[in-house]
Amino acid sequence: MALSETIKAGPASGKLDHIPGHLGLPIFGNTFDFLKDPIAFHNGRREQYGDVYKVSIFGGQTVVLRGADALEYVLMDRDKNFASRRGWDLLWRLFPNGLMLRDFDDHRSHRRIMQVAFKPQPMRDYMSGLNDGIANSMRAWAPSSRFEFYPAIKNLTLELGASVFLGLKMGDDAAKVNQAFMDEVAASVAVLRRPWPFTPMRRGVKARAFLLDYFRDIIPARRAGDGNDMFSQFCRAESEDGAFFTDDEIVDHLNFLLMAAHDTTTSALSTMVWALAEYPEWQDAVREEVLAVGTEQLDFDAQDQLAVTERVFKEALRFRPPVMFIPRFAERPFEFGGYQIPGETSISVSPVLVAMSEKHWTQPTKFDPDRFSDNRAEDRSHRFAWSPFGGGAHKCIGMHFALMQVRAFVFQFLRNYEVALPEGYEARWQALPIPKPKDGLPVVLSRR
């Protein structure tokens, strides 16, 4: 189909000279400005160049497409043009065969097998494991005038990963596994992309090798057993057409999924608990809802009773989504926003930039869970106004598990504790690779 005459056509060579934007320093491009404050960086570029502009980050040029329409166009990908694997090239050394780094028919076939592990009965089994794991871990949380929440919740989610994902108690291996995950994530955004000695990338590559060997050794027992952990589900999963995972596919999927679930949930819960402490009226409202359920742990079928809890969590994810930017790779030319984008081009869209847009949200910098209530429903102003879990074929397969884990944690946490911020405290957050508090999020923790 012919492009409109209003489209700003690019040069035949496929370069991005026709796309507005400044590419920054030689070699490093805009990387340092971007890492310093990603949102301010992109807002400044939008003011200068509009909704389509180019940047140079982590050694490559990228075309940024702004807005909810851009999110819908790229993530729904009706023409199967936007590859996730080549978009996430920062992760290929570490998670080359995880579900997120597969595309089109290959992605669909793997996702179909994996969905077996997220059916209702396995989810009920996971809820049981979550409840027990949260209760056991939280017993060690002593009241304090300066309780560092972030490392505590990070350890708790790791322990949940050991029990619910892997079906084992990690014991002395916990520290090694935790460090391996941290090394992988740190390497994923390292400015130096080669695994040279003493570099973050080298540590990340070594961490990947350790984790894959660790998981591979467990497969025979999980495949032969009848465990209800997620690892066992993956080992035995079979799609309706008889397809199943090989050993290598199991360890690759598990490595990526466990890392993603661990760090994203840690980030999301840190933001939510900060919000509960910063806005005690919402803490009181959620606690009242939790106590009204009348049980010590959250039953799987009682989750729909936590409407206020869900609104607060959704607002926390709008405020600071764990994945702020979503990269893709355009395999063929396409048009957006009046520009012809050549094929073989990296592109980027952003849930957080849309989530902070006045076009879709009233006072977007204000923390206001009621914007998700039925009578306001600001999240329905556009199907991609709120998209912290992505969308389209690559929408997070563990979304419902993540929501269940958050509900189970908040349920027990607010039954047992009250949380406040130290007087005069101002949170400082590191935005990338996944948002986290720079100071461990010290809170005043009191038993009820």
Question: Could you outline the blueprint of secondary structure elements for this entry?
Answer:
Elements: H1 31-36, H2 38-49, E1 52-57, E2 60-65, H3 68-76, E3 82-83, H4 84-87, H5 104-114, H6 120-138, E4 144-148, H7 149-165, H8 173-188, H9 200-216, H10 219-224, H11 230-236, H12 247-278, H13 280-293, H14 307-319, E5 326-330, E6 334-336, E7 339-341, E8 345-349, H15 351-355, H16 399-416, E9 417-420, E10 429-430, E11 436-437, E12 442-447
Parallel strand pairs: 2-8
Antiparallel strand pairs: 1-2, 3-5, 4-12, 5-8, 6-7, 9-12, 10-11
Summarize the structure in short.
With 448 residues, the chain is of the alpha+beta class.
Task: Describe it.
This protein is α+β, with helices and mostly antiparallel strands and 448 residues long. The protein has a domain of 160 residues: Uridine Diphospho-n-acetylenolpyruvylglucosamine Reductase, domain 2 (2-Layer Sandwich), CATH 3.30.43.20. The protein contains 16 helices and twelve strands. Helix 6 packs parallel to helix 16, helix 9 packs across helix 12 and helix 13 packs antiparallel against helix 14. The N terminus is likely disordered.
